[in-house]
């Protein structure tokens, strides 16, 4: 392990990781990261925080499992397996082993799932083993509240070569749980917060904000990698887009943060609770500004606005899918319809299923290349409706007929038109050119062909 705070050793580590990467994309990426450290790029601030603040065991697991196994070696395995099976494979999956939860948050996307059935430990163990055979070493666990399942800690320990991101409300992260996470080293909690105390307690319940902050403190003092998860609603979006919010999260020890948008698919769907297209666009502007400022040393992901960073929509196994507690496999956490089930089909069969293949073959949706509008739920809602009807996908919880017919589809279509009017000028005025430049280090032909780029000279 390199010495903490030693830039030369950090640069050497990044170059070494790049040198073992089987894919040109990662060779170029880690070379670029090494150069960013040399030039003291603003992004390097979060890397240095991670190196300096994590428990040594947690840091070692992050480097070996997340960076080497998942980002670098896993890509090589998947590329070989794709050629072997003639199917596109995801690089990770979201797993919700239970839908039980101790909170009842307003508008929870998972609030209508059946809470009686769960994936067993053996089913989860097999799922991870099968996934690793295909080159997957990173998994997101959600729910429900994943920490209800104490046996998951044993699962994560058994798969010590993987890295696990766990979305949680944070209320079960007591001292004993945090101590176990230190011992594991390969688990990164992402604790939900709705911005400030007022919004968090309004959506999640009185006193929850303080419990979240206490969980942050325990994780920070223990040196566990962790971050925040924030869902933008019409009432919370303004504060979440302010510098004060991000500074607070950094001060609390978060190294990473994920922004999501409220989607009217769960408990009591409410279109008026959605952040407006204008609020979503302003968040995009702020996130890009934070990423280029040394004052905000934190990695920020913006699930909807970051389409250009992940080549568009990630659903249906393009990059991930969602396995829920009865084994059904949804194309996306926010598209709760399924045709396939891990209890009936192998992962390779699911990857090649007509339902998922059809969705992937639509990319970019409607033939439009604006990856700032990547989503078949918010930005091209007719794509989801068409796929569900075409393949008879079953709703995975009650009430989903509301997003297939009635007033909600009309409202989503209106939202999509407003997003198009705002985002198309942004895409053509520089964002598209920036994305095309990022593809210069990519050697996957399908990504290049989508953007009508030549593939013959890539290697």
Notes on the protein architecture:
With about 450 residues, this protein is an alpha/beta fold. Helices cover about 45% and strands about 10% of the residues. The protein contains 17 helices and twelve strands. The protein has helices spanning about 5-20, 25-40, 45-55, 55-85, 120-135, 150-160, 175-185, 195-205, 210-220, 235-240, 245-250, 275-290, 345-350, 355-360, 380-390, 405-440, 445-450; strands at about 95, 140, 165-170, 185-190, 225-230, 255-260, 300, 320-325, 330, 335-340, 340, 395. Strands 7-6-5-4-3-2-1-8-9-11 form a ten-stranded mixed β-sheet. Helix 6 (about 150-160) links the parallel strand 2 (about 140) and strand 3. Helix 1 runs antiparallel to helix 2 and helix 14 (about 355-360) packs antiparallel against helix 15. The protein is globular and about 60 Å long. The two termini are about 30 Å apart. The model has no long low-confidence stretch (mean pLDDT about 95).
The outline comes out as globular
Strand content: 5-15%
Please give the largest β-sheet. Answer: 10 strands, mixed
Class from helix and strand fractions: alpha/beta
Low-confidence stretches: none
Helix and strand succession? HHHHEHEHEHEHHEHHEHEEEEEHHHEHH
Which helices and strands appear, and what pairs or packs with what?
Elements: H1 7-20, H2 24-38, H3 44-53, H4 56-85, E1 93-95, H5 121-133, E2 138-141, H6 151-158, E3 163-168, H7 175-184, E4 187-192, H8 197-204, H9 208-222, E5 227-232, H10 237-240, H11 243-251, E6 256-261, H12 277-291, E7 299-302, E8 322-323, E9 328-330, E10 337-338, E11 340-341, H13 347-351, H14 354-361, H15 381-391, E12 394-395, H16 407-438, H17 445-450
Parallel strand pairs: 1-2, 1-8, 2-3, 3-4, 4-5, 5-6, 6-7
Antiparallel strand pairs: 8-9, 9-11, 10-12
Helix pairs in contact: 1-2, 14-15
């Amino acid at each position: 392990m390199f010495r903490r705070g030693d830039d030369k050793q950090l640069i050497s580590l990044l170059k070494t990781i790049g040198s073992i990467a089987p894919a040109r994309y990662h060779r170029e990426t880690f070379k670029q990261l090494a150069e960013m450290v040399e030039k003291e790029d603003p992004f390097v601030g979060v890397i240095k925080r991670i190196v300096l603040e994590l428990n040594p065991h947690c840091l070692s697991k992050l480097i070996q499992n997340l960076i080497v196994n998942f980002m670098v070696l896993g890509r090589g395995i998947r590329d070989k397996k794709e050629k072997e099976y003639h199917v596109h494979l995801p690089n990770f999956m979201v797993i919700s082993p239970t839908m039980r939860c101790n909170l009842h948050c307003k508008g929870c996307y998972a609030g209508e799932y059946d809470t009686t059935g769960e994936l067993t430990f053996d089913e989860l163990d097999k799922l991870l083993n099968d996934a690793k055979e295909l080159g997957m070493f990173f998994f997101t666990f959600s729910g429900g509240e994943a920490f209800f399942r104490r046996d998951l800690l044993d699962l994560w320990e058994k798969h010590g070569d993987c890295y696990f991101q766990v979305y949680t409300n944070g209320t079960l992260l007591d001292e004993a749980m945090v101590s176990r996470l230190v011992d594991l080293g390969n688990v990164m909690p992402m604790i939900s917060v709705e911005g400030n105390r007022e919004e968090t307690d309004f959506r999640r319940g009185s006193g929850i904000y303080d419990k979240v902050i206490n969980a942050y403190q325990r994780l920070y003092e223990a040196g566990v990698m962790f971050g925040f998860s924030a869902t933008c609603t019409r009432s919370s979006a303004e504060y979440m887009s302010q510098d004060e919010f991000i500074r607070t999260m950094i001060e609390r020890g978060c190294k990473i943060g994920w922004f999501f948008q409220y989607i009217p698919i769960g408990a009591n769907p409410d279109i008026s609770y959605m952040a407006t297209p204008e609020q979503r666009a302003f968040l995009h502007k702020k996130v890009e500004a934070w990423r280029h400022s040394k004052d905000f040393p934190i990695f920020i992901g913006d699930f909807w606005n970051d389409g250009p960073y992940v080549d568009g929509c990630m659903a249906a196994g393009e990059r991930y899918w969602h396995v829920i507690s009865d084994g059904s496999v949804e194309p996306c956490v926010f598209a709760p319809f399924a045709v396939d089930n891990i209890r009936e089909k192998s992962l390779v069969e699911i990857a090649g299923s007509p339902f998922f293949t059809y969705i992937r073959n639509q990319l970019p949706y409607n033939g439009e290349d604006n990856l700032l509008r990547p989503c078949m739920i918010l930005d091209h809602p007719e794509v989801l409706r068409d796929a569900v009807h075409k393949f008879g996908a079953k709703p995975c919880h009650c009430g989903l007929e509301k997003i297939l017919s009635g007033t909600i589809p009309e409202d989503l279509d209106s939202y999509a038109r407003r997003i198009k009017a705002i985002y198309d000028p942004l895409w053509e005025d520089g964002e598209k050119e920036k994305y095309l430049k990022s593809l210069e280090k990519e050697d996957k032909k399908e990504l290049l062909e989508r953007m009508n780029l030549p593939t013959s000279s890539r290697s």
